[in-house]
Every structure is written in C-alpha cells, then in structure tokens.
Amino acid sequence: MTTDTIIHSRGLAKRFTAPGSPGKHVQAVAGLDLDVSRGELLAFLGPNGAGKSTSLRLLTTLLRPSAGTATVAGCDVHTDPAGVRSRIGYVGQGTSGSLSQRVRDELLSQGAFHGLGRRERARRADELIESLELGPFARRTVQQLSGGQKRRVDIALGLVHAPTLLFLDEPSTGLDPQSRANLWQHILDLRESHGTTVFLTTHYLDEADRYAERVLVMDAGRVIADNTAEHLKAGLAGDAVTLGFPDAGLAEAARALLGHLLHTGATQVTDDVGRPGLAITIPDGAGRLPDLIRALDAEGLPPASAAAVPPTLDDVFLSLTGRSLREADLASSGPDTDAPHPDQTLQEASRP
Ligand SMILES: Nc1ncnc2c1ncn2[C@@H]1O[C@H](COP(=O)(O)OP(=O)(O)OP(=O)(O)O)[C@@H](O)[C@H]1O
User: What is the CATH number of the domain that holds 36?
Assistant: First the structure.
C-alpha cells in the first residue's frame, strides 16, 4: 500500500441470509482484493446480482463485512466507520434527498449534518449549485425536478462535505441518453477540478468503456477482470469478422481457405439476413477485410456480405464467463433478486 492508496481491501466478503429462506445463504461478495489510487475513476461492471452494490456498501461502511479487511480514505472500515463516512461521499441507487425540500435548503441541511458552519455550508451549497448547473432549479423542491436533475442533486448532496472519494451506485440508471451524457460531463468536470476519486457501478457498457479509466468486471461476487477497457478488449485478440455466402457449399469451401490463410478456425454462423456464414476473430479485422475478400474472390468464393465489428466489453464478459451480460441479467432476474432487501433502509441510514 503506498501513500497514494485511497482504498485497500483484502478478502472483503459479505454473506447474506437468503431472503425468505432461513438457513440458506447468498455469498454476495466473495473476497474483494482491491487497491485504488487517489484520483482514479473506476467502474464496477457486471450483471444484476454480481455484488457491485454490496461491494460499494461494504467500502462505505453501510454494511458490515462477514470477512476481510479494508482501509478507505485512511480509516479502517471495522474500527473507524465514522472516520470513513466523514471522508467519503456516497450516492445510492434511490433519490437520496427529501422530496419536499427545496434544492438549496436540502444542500444546507446536508452541510449541517456534516457539521459545517452556517457560512461554510452556504458557500459549499452555492459552489455545488454552480458546478452542477442547478441554479435554475435551486428554489424548486426535489420532487419538481426531472430524473437527470434529481441525480445531479444527489451527487451534489454526496459532495457537500468536499470528500476526496465519491462512491456512486448506478448514477445514470433510468436516465435518457442526453441526461446521461450531461451527468457524465458533470462527473468528469468535478473530477478535473477537484481531483476527486470516483468509484461507481454501472450496467451501461458504453459508459464503462468510454469514461472509466479502470473497469472491474464483476460476476458472482468476484472481480474477474480489472484493467482499462482498451486492455480488456485488446485481450480478446481482435475484431469479429462475419462473412455471408450464397450457399452452404461455398461457405464450407471458404472455411477451408480461411483456415489456410489465417491459421485459425472459423465458426459457422448465419449472416445478418440469414445466409450461411463464417465468423472469425482476427487482429485488425476491419483493416484486413478487403484483402480477405480479394483472396476469396480470386478462388471463386466471393462473399455475399462482410462485416468487421470491434470487440465490446460485452464480448469481454462473454469470453470470461461464457454468457453475455444481457443473458446473465436475465438469468438473475428471478422474483427473489427483484424483491427489496431487508436492509435496504441502510441507504437511508446515511442520511440526516
Ligand atoms: N440484504 C440482502 N439480503 C439478502 N441478499 C442480498 C441482500 N443484498 C443483496 N443480496 C444478494 O446479494 C447478491 C449481490 O447483490 P448486489 O445488490 O450487490 O448486486 P449488484 O451487482 O449490485 O446487482 P444490481 O446490478 O442488480 O444492482 C444478489 O444475489 C442479491 O440478491
């Protein structure tokens, strides 16, 4: 652990009693080993039930670990949870503010909760109203705001005491694409101007890909990959090339030729319009596609369709687990996992 380390955990774990089934357990987090440096922007990506929120709630001391150790912002989660809480900001999945309070008053109350003096909390509220562009709504009540505006208020609430570390649980879920982009711009700006470490969870592959400097892919309570999105995708060795053919005989002949040319086997698939096709993953597939088409053409095997698609983080998840994120989400969306958890109110406990 260096002086720059803001989160350090080893074997951090959480086991719940399965809701409605005493005696049965759910291993929500199965041993989190994590080192995060100051100023990083990292995202947990994973399907429903992977353990992302539970990990965040362990690190923010909203849940007590079943095993393991963690130091967050210099404080031990077991022995100094109050120290952790005073140094971090946490924005949970639900809207955290009181719906009937005006935005500025809500920020002032939150400042008072954190022990800021009258002048200091007014200064902080106005600063956040400006940096999160909440000026036009500052005198409205929270319930009069749109989803994106509410989320910005949530983030402002998490930042009132100027934490150096901000945890955001699915900050953009449920927002339309424009509000998501706008919210992200605010998160990036805050980070740029204050050097805040931002640790968030998301379901959105594109967000993790585009904005997070470090992506922790989580599945079944474990981090199964931890790197930049670029590295994770590059590890998959290339673009997915799909070639369609007028009939199965030509596809089979093309398969033999491609095997010879590329020294790797192609998988039989159907192309976009249902023709017999071949799929193959090759480095720089998009760049090499014209040469491949010419080579097939020269042998009297011209493809009827051709496409090269760069890998996504979903391909990374697929290659790591054998399931796409969507399949994994569907598999975990049974009635039990959708039911509210008994300790959901813990989120409320962090509020004044
Ligand atoms: N209070 C609780 N009691 C019992 N089981 C729980 C509780 N909280 C979470 N779980 C279970 O722990 C596992 C991990 O849940 P968690 O909410 O951390 O997943 P997640 O990755 O954040 O999912 P989502 O993306 O749906 O928010 C799931 O199987 C969930 O049902």
Answer: 3.40.50.300
Which residue's alpha carbon is nearest to atom 6 within ligand 1?
Answer: 16
For residue 276, tell me if it sits in a domain: yes
CA–CA gap between residue 152 and residue 150 (Å, rounded): 5
Residues, the chain: 352
Amino acid, single-letter form, for residue 111: G
Ligand 1, residue 46: give the atom nearest the CA. Answer: 21
Query: What is the distance between the alpha carbons of residues 322 and 327, in angstroms, rounded to a whole number?
Result: 10
End-to-end alpha carbon distance in the chain: 33
In this structure, the answer to whether residues 210 and 268 fall within a common structural domain is no
Tell me which H or E stretch contains 27. Answer: strand 25-37
Q: The complex's ipTM?
A: 0.97
CA distance 261 to 259: 6
Whole-angstrom Cα distance, residue 165 to residue 159? 9
* Any ligand 1 atom below 6 A from CB of 333: no
Distance CA 209, CA 229 (A): 5
Strands 197-202 and 165-169: parallel
This prediction has a pTM of 0.79
Main-chain phi, psi angles of 182, to 5 degrees? -65, -45
Domains in the chain: how many in total?
2
pLDDT in tens, 277-304: 998 888 888 899 999 999 999 999 999 9
104 lines ligand 1 (CB under 6 A): no
Yes or no: say if 259 and 266 are a contact pair by the CB < 8 Å rule. yes
- As given in the structure block, the two tokens for residue 36 are 């995060």
